[in-house]
Specification:
alpha/beta; Rossmann fold; 2 domains; 8-stranded mixed beta sheet; 13 strands; about 40% helix; NAD binding
Length: about 425
């Protein structure tokens, strides 16, 4: 298969997808509403961080296989990979998907394949996207082919997993599923499984909901352990020795554009039935406040300086979308703590407060609050902590630091219940 691919949305999924198609020989037009992003990409540079992506984009731009544009162009395959954020009431905001679909209407011709990669609530392809195409004079499933193929990749491994992972392709009818699946078979080494659009939509949402629910169980365990004086991490380690148990680790909350959002798309469509899913969201959303409450036990007063290490929703990436760390920062600012911030992956333009170096952040701090498990944090310079910090204390919400010095007070989810006792002993 060859031809032209038009990808609408050049973010964390759209850009790597564009680069992969271009790399195997397709001519790719990437569309974004930001002129800065378009100009950056056409210069062979990238605007996001992802292993190997910069080199690949530079190569396909140089070869003339990839070009960024502010508007779509005629193509044989259209892929929509725009965000689907949630509103304040936690319903899906499909404005970007609708706008992207309408933007390609003037460029669609007979036999084109239209694929929605954006994560969407069940029945969006049938009830939202197909009517837009049909009202424009096309017959989705007959003269053009419409399908949903959700992304299933892990940040930091996107280029690998785009190729290696299995893909689910759900068509508005069987012929659409086959046409779209053949597109992915040009580069996917994993299975490409054909199904209905609504099944593909629900499958994607349940993948992330499964993880969200299991993280909520671990977070609830952390709260129970704090209440009862139990070592939560020891409990998890021992329970996981059972051959059919795999408890997750607790943390400061759940973030990112998938786990913190996708479960709501199911709750929106079936609120009376999605009781467990909704409660898991509530538990995970409660963790930032839990962290702030425990931090208050660590510190002597709210005038204390807190050094925040890590702002992203997970380690070794630059993505702060839906990050629980950002929620914790807002809560601490509301409490008027003195805060400093260090994250080796985050750029200043991504956040609304000044970033510091590690040394600047920990200087005169009374607690170092670790909110992301970046590789740089796993072996912190303990000599600098002892030299710079006013009070060498670490509260590690990611359970990632191996503290060697006995002079550094260390808290994680294994000993939160001991905070008050240890603090009293220090006074």
């Amino acid at each position: 298969m060859s031809g032209t691919v038009c990808v609408v949305g050049l973010g964390y999924i759209g850009l790597p997808t564009s680069a992969v198609f271009a790399n195997i020989g397709f001519d790719v037009i990437g569309v974004d509403v930001s002129r800065r992003i378009v100009d950056t990409l056409n210069n062979g540079d990238i605007h996001i961080e992802e292993d190997g992506l910069g080199e690949l984009v530079k190569e396909v731009v140089k070869k003339g296989r990839f070009k960024a544009s502010l508007k779509p162009q005629k193509a044989d395959i259209f892929i929509i990979a725009v965000p689907t954020p949630h509103r304040e009431d936690n319903t899906a905001n499909l404005d970007y998907v609708v706008s992207a679909t309408k933007s390609i209407l003037p460029y669609i011709k007979q036999d084109d394949v239209i694929i929605i990669e954006s994560t969407i609530p069940p029945r969006t392809v049938d009830d939202v996207v197909a009517p837009i195409l049909n009202e424009a004079g096309f017959k989705a499933g007959e003269d053009i082919y419409l399908a949903h193929c959700p992304e299933r990749v892990l940040p930091g491994r996107i280029l690998i997993e785009l190729v290696e992972n299995n893909r689910i392709v759900g068509g508005i009818n069987k012929v659409s599923a086959k046409k779209a699946a053949d597109v992915y078979r040009t580069f996917v080494n994993g299975q490409v499984i054909e199904t209905t659009a609504v099944t593909a939509e629900m499958s994607k949402l349940m993948e992330n909901t499964y993880r969200d629910v299991n993280i909520a169980l671990a977070n609830e365990l952390a709260k129970i352990s704090d209440k009862l004086g139990v070592n939560a991490l020891d409990v998890i380690e021992l329970a996981n020795l059972h051959p059919r148990v795999n408890l997750h680790l607790p943390g400061p909350g759940v973030g990112g554009h998938c786990l913190a959002v996708d479960p709501y798309f199911i709750v929106e469509k079936a609120p009376e039935q999605a009781v467990l899913i909704a409660e898991a969201r509530n538990i995970n959303n409660s963790m930032p406040q839990f962290v702030v409450d425990k931090l208050a036990e660590v510190l002597e007063n709210k005038k204390s300086k807190v050094a925040i290490l890590g702002l992203t929703y997970k380690g070794n990436i630059d993505d702060v979308r839906e990050s629980p760390a950002m929620n914790i920062v807002r809560l601490l600012q509301d409490e008027e703590y003195e805060l400093s911030f260090y994250d080796p992956y985050v750029r200043q333009e991504q956040v609304f407060f000044p970033l510091s170096t590690f040394e600047e952040a920990i200087k005169d701090s009374e607690c170092i609050l670790v909110l992301a498990d970046h590789k740089q944090f796993k072996e912190l310079d303990e000599e600098k902590i002892l030299d710079y910090a006013k009070r060498p204390t670490i509260f590690d919400t990611r359970n990632c630091i191996n503290v060697k010095s006995k002079e550094i007070i260390y808290y994680n989810f294994n000993n939160l219940y001991e905070i008050k006792k240890l603090q009293d002993a220090l006074i």
